[in-house]
């Protein structure tokens, strides 16, 4: 029998990627295509869902060709996607009614303030595990229902469908207007603010609160399950999994036991800790979310700490300040000096996420003296990511009552050696990078392969995980404490910067 | 001696014009400014774009100076960028070969390890990034010597240091060995650095085919080599494929 493979689709914020993996979890081929970012107004971010679909139509066959793999050799497809990005489309024509509203979009700020002022608002976090914030999907659906004439009526009649990107892709892959399957998985559904975290069903009170008609919502399914068979692009191939990208990374890092955590370092960074079969409610500014659900087994929950700006600070250093030509050069520049020279950068570009949740905070550079060079600034840029990680790890330890022993890392920033060493130093735990840095894609592939029996069980997947690199802490404890203290004082200086308009 | 080449003069004029202007320029503006037919200007721009000296804005179709031009004076690839760009392929090579992978560049006549992937057996290993290795006794180093004409300068003419009985120490022998490496496109080292260890490496090429580094595996000689003591051909293929994949990502079209 010919060798069989699993294909992952990672529908991300800036691009869509297809990766083919073999049974050992090794990468066989990669294809990728970026899509346009639309910024129609300050604070608005949109994606053209049709463009994203067309990109997939192109790169999926390319990935097969690059690998020299036939359709019949693909055991399953798994999808990982940018979370919370909100799309509504016409069930009969398949046409989106508007461009997708991306997770970074803050157009719903006023709406969220209005909703938060209602007496029932306190129910939201209790029911779904997430704070009422612009970050999640429900306010965006509501915004669309209010903004597009006639949309509410059509949604109530079930003529218009809502979905995040995995729903959109699955619907199109399985036939679109011609019988396409309208479904989502528990991890994506857990990011809408509309799902009850314990029953894993859409919740009527939440639907009422946000004014979202049930008829437009996809069916909630486990993260790994054979949802159906693709009828186009990859005709005949089973679709075996869907997960939000960060949950996919947790899966790809094989964090299957309670207490295991991973942090994905990209534009923003996301620390997720497996908390097992019970949701842990955070008292330290973390999110409670579904980690994954394997078939009919009970869901596994996670605590999540999103950090808004990490790699984006490096991007700003490159594009906004023009001090480097490419992101990796930050390390070269940072290495021209031995320390930060007393300088700290807190990148509260659009407020601070976990664990502070201060939307009025704005970024600061503190400790400037005439001694500071661009090398020191580059160090401060990298250290900002490390200290932000420290803050959320502390919150996680406090919430879970566990002490993180080792941090598994992935994402584009893990190529930065100095940064990885710095994270090990400030956390005082080893930092390990797995052999496949593409853990989001790998997680989607694992989940799909599990659904169709390509991989037997979670233990089998664990055996595929191998350490590619490890950084051990080597910082003097006294220095760690004094630096942390400086960082905390720098963070305090970001608070309250934005004042209500007078 | 032939006279000046007209198209190079025109190309240079376009670059000067783009350098002087604050914004981006359209092909029409460029043609008018330089008194060239539009078609000629377009052809020149296309070529300049191909070599990375100008960039075209996909939305407006206008041109500006390209990133490659800015790097021209320091025509090297930042080692941290090399690591970033190579990381996926280095991982895949380690997974496929079941050996540890290193990427090296030249630093003052030695090999600087810029990336290291552990052997995927989860044994205790320490990260060697930043360490230096001798050029003439490692597969990475020999690749760099073979393909980078400047790299050998620091070695001098005298005999080379012997690490084992099998280290190549005579410059004449090294020259012969390097010629062979250039011919086949990869290098091996069998117990030339440490008894019991061997390595295989191949060149990483950047824009225009310039060698910017080397990628290779190393490990116990009985795993790297076959019964006759020759580098295992399957492993050689893995290494060369990985080198080619990284090169492709770096923009070395033909490799
Ligand atoms: N070597 C590096 N050092 C520091 N930051 C880096 C490095 N390489 C990439 N980055 C940053 O990582 C981000 C890209 O990582 P990636 O995982 O592709 O992110 P995303 O999936 O969020 O787009 C960018 O923000 C970039 O600035």
From TrEMBL, chain A:
<feature type="binding site">
    <location>
        <position position="315"/>
    </location>
    <ligand>
        <name>ATP</name>
    </ligand>
</feature>
<feature type="domain" description="Carbohydrate kinase FGGY C-terminal">
    <location>
        <begin position="261"/>
        <end position="451"/>
    </location>
</feature>
<comment type="pathway">
    <text>Polyol metabolism; glycerol degradation via glycerol kinase pathway; sn-glycerol 3-phosphate from glycerol: step 1/1.</text>
</comment>
<protein>
    <recommendedName>
        <fullName>Glycerol kinase</fullName>
        <ecNumber>2.7.1.30</ecNumber>
    </recommendedName>
</protein>
<feature type="binding site">
    <location>
        <position position="311"/>
    </location>
    <ligand>
        <name>ATP</name>
    </ligand>
</feature>
<feature type="binding site">
    <location>
        <position position="84"/>
    </location>
    <ligand>
        <name>sn-glycerol 3-phosphate</name>
    </ligand>
</feature>
<comment type="similarity">
    <text>Belongs to the FGGY kinase family.</text>
</comment>
<feature type="binding site">
    <location>
        <position position="311"/>
    </location>
    <ligand>
        <name>ADP</name>
    </ligand>
</feature>
<dbReference type="GO" id="GO:0005829">
    <property type="term" value="C:cytosol"/>
</dbReference>
<feature type="binding site">
    <location>
        <position position="245"/>
    </location>
    <ligand>
        <name>sn-glycerol 3-phosphate</name>
    </ligand>
</feature>
<feature type="binding site">
    <location>
        <position position="14"/>
    </location>
    <ligand>
        <name>ATP</name>
    </ligand>
</feature>
<keyword id="KW-0067">ATP-binding</keyword>
<dbReference type="Pfam" id="PF02782">
    <property type="entry name" value="FGGY_C"/>
</dbReference>
<feature type="binding site">
    <location>
        <position position="13"/>
    </location>
    <ligand>
        <name>ADP</name>
    </ligand>
</feature>
<dbReference type="Pfam" id="PF00370">
    <property type="entry name" value="FGGY_N"/>
</dbReference>
<feature type="binding site">
    <location>
        <position position="135"/>
    </location>
    <ligand>
        <name>glycerol</name>
    </ligand>
</feature>
<feature type="binding site">
    <location>
        <position position="246"/>
    </location>
    <ligand>
        <name>glycerol</name>
    </ligand>
</feature>
<dbReference type="InterPro" id="IPR018484">
    <property type="entry name" value="FGGY_N"/>
</dbReference>
<dbReference type="GO" id="GO:0005524">
    <property type="term" value="F:ATP binding"/>
</dbReference>
<keyword id="KW-0418">Kinase</keyword>
<keyword id="KW-0547">Nucleotide-binding</keyword>
<feature type="binding site">
    <location>
        <position position="13"/>
    </location>
    <ligand>
        <name>ATP</name>
    </ligand>
</feature>
UniProtKB/TrEMBL annotation, chain B:
<dbReference type="GO" id="GO:0006071">
    <property type="term" value="P:glycerol metabolic process"/>
</dbReference>
<comment type="function">
    <text>May be an activator protein for the gylABX operon.</text>
</comment>
<keyword id="KW-0238">DNA-binding</keyword>
<dbReference type="InterPro" id="IPR014757">
    <property type="entry name" value="Tscrpt_reg_IclR_C"/>
</dbReference>
<feature type="domain" description="IclR-ED">
    <location>
        <begin position="68"/>
        <end position="252"/>
    </location>
</feature>
<dbReference type="GO" id="GO:0003677">
    <property type="term" value="F:DNA binding"/>
</dbReference>
<keyword id="KW-0804">Transcription</keyword>
<feature type="domain" description="HTH iclR-type">
    <location>
        <begin position="5"/>
        <end position="67"/>
    </location>
</feature>
<keyword id="KW-0805">Transcription regulation</keyword>
<dbReference type="InterPro" id="IPR029016">
    <property type="entry name" value="GAF-like_dom_sf"/>
</dbReference>
<dbReference type="InterPro" id="IPR036388">
    <property type="entry name" value="WH-like_DNA-bd_sf"/>
</dbReference>
<protein>
    <recommendedName>
        <fullName>Glycerol operon regulatory protein</fullName>
    </recommendedName>
</protein>
<dbReference type="Pfam" id="PF01614">
    <property type="entry name" value="IclR_C"/>
</dbReference>
<dbReference type="InterPro" id="IPR036390">
    <property type="entry name" value="WH_DNA-bd_sf"/>
</dbReference>
<dbReference type="InterPro" id="IPR050707">
    <property type="entry name" value="HTH_MetabolicPath_Reg"/>
</dbReference>
<dbReference type="Pfam" id="PF09339">
    <property type="entry name" value="HTH_IclR"/>
</dbReference>
<dbReference type="InterPro" id="IPR005471">
    <property type="entry name" value="Tscrpt_reg_IclR_N"/>
</dbReference>
<dbReference type="GO" id="GO:0003700">
    <property type="term" value="F:DNA-binding transcription factor activity"/>
</dbReference>
<dbReference type="GO" id="GO:0045892">
    <property type="term" value="P:negative regulation of DNA-templated transcription"/>
</dbReference>
<keyword id="KW-0319">Glycerol metabolism</keyword>
